[in-house]
Amino acid sequence: MSTRRRLSLPILTLLMLLGTACSGGGVEEATNDDEAIAPVAGAQTPANERPVQFEGAGKVKLFGTLSMPATDAGATVPGVLMIPTSGAGGVLGPAGVADPLGKDLAKTFTDAGVAAYRYDQRGTGQSKLEPDVRLSFDDLVADARAGLDLMAQRRETAGRDLSVVGYDQGGLVALRLAATDPRVKRVVLISTPGRSLLDVRASQLQARYGPESAAALRTEVANLIANRSVPPLDQLRTELRPMLPAQEAGFLADLYALDPAADAAKVKVPTMIVVPSDPAPYDPQRLAAAIPGAQVVTSTGSGSTLVISGPTPEDLSDPTSANHDHGAAPPVAPTTRDAATLERVARFAGATP
Fold first, then answer.
1. Beta bridge partners of 309
2. pTM
3. What number of other Cβ atoms are within 10 A of residue 285's Cβ?
4. Which residues are 54's β-sheet partners?
5. Which CATH code for domain 9-196+258-349?
6. Which residue has better confidence, 307 or 155?
7. Per-domain residue ranges of the chain
8. In the 8-state DSSP scheme, what is residue 192?
9. Most buried in the list 25, 54, 122, 212, measured by CB within 10 Å?
10. CB of 349 within 8 A of CB of 188?
């Protein structure tokens, strides 16, 4: 993964609250050199990663990493687009601590003979935004569609089935994309909330601060959705202030108004819903009920990134924590993930029995 620069404080604060991404971004443009270095006929190429950029909504340059399995020269393979959550590409906080879920997934996919592309969400990592550009859920979906364009056009995956994998709130983008783009043949949702973000955040606040805090958030979000604005910081409860940055009120209004099950009901392709050993916060059955034939896989991992061992944040219940609910904290090297579940995801995405 490339080294990440710090984000501006307002955007970073918002993104840490909404989730952390599991992607690794590159810093180089894709060029025709990819084709020029193709091996001779019959030769074998090892699994490898290369930086590839694409253009998202509003001509924003987005950076990512293409992971390829070893293949015969000229062979094509199924592809997976990995949609990041609302956070820096692989960064858990301002210190730049990496969460390797995206890299773990990419390796699992390539080991199964599937190409994988993961990218930094706009405004994070190398995918920078101009200071006056605001976040938009529609833009996140358009970015993912552009990423799918990239996979459909590359020689390595052209003409092959394409799947999308969404982690955490990236799953909400994956649902919207799968419901509107017939090129998506399968969907994998990892730790994706089946309830509204408001319900999820309110339950977290209640556990941490009590029912008054949860009620206050519900009141503020109702006003936010109605008026697309938030009151001055000094009029908000302390714990709500970092959750409701005024400059991103429009984005938050759209995000809090989303009902994941409504988008799920429009998905008509095979879907796998992966949740950790405690699935309660994610309500996977609500998503499964909306998608005919969807299968729910419960990981042995206890964290939302399928961690089964390794260090964890001291307090997972604090919604203002940079590491909230993502099962990894420095150092990340000892972390172990649920390999069996990851392999099952790879077989599903690659349509392998």
1. 336
2. 0.78
3. 14
4. 62
5. 3.40.50.1820
6. 155
7. 9-196+258-349, 200-250
8. -
9. 25
10. yes
